[in-house]
Amino acid sequence: MRVFNHQTLVHLTTDLVGGTAIARKLVVNMEKLGQTLATSSIYKRYLSENRVDLNADIEAVLRFSTDCAVDELLWHFQQLMKDKKASLKLLTYDNVVVLSPQLILPHPSLHTDLLIVRCAFEAWPQFEHPIIQKTLAEIAAMALPASDAEFFLQGKSLVDF
Question: What is the pLDDT of residues 55-102, one digit of tens each?
Fold first, then answer.
């Protein structure tokens, strides 16, 4: 098993309809950049109060290891997302703190979005938020459940074929 220099958390989002295949393809293509070490469960997030499947996304967080620099990784993510109805959002990169118009690390969603908190905790519970100075396990223990989401699939379905 190859050891990579940088540890990240990556938030993956895609449309529920046909999104599982797109998510799998993204994860396979990400393997050219590094290695997926862990993945959260995949959750269905409803985009309206009606809780209609046609208006829902699937989301997961991956713990990803890479040798890419931050800007290189972001460039590769943009290339991977071209022509796809999907999003790859960098939540963390090692313990780096960045506050710029182009990039904020750790991403604010890491402690404010209840579903992302849950997913990130599942992928890497020991990660210590460099600003809050609490682990994701501690942050998740204090967070309320995400009321707009529900379990959809096991995360290993993204990496095990």
Answer: 899 999 999 999 999 999 999 999 999 877 899 999 999 999 999 988
Residue keyed to tokens 């009606």: 50
Is the entire prediction scored with pTM above 0.85?
Answer: yes
Task: Name the token pair of 56.
Answer: 């829902």
* Contacting residues for 99 by C-beta, under 8 A, at least 6 apart: none
Record the tokens describing residue 100, joined without a space. 């710029």
Kind and range of the H or E run holding 66: strand 56-66
- Token pair of 43, please? 């959750």
Pair 74, 90: CB distance under 8 Å: yes
Sign of CA dihedral 131, 134, 135, 141: negative
Whether 56 contacts 16, CB under 8 Å: yes
144 in Cβ contact with 54 (< 8 Å): no
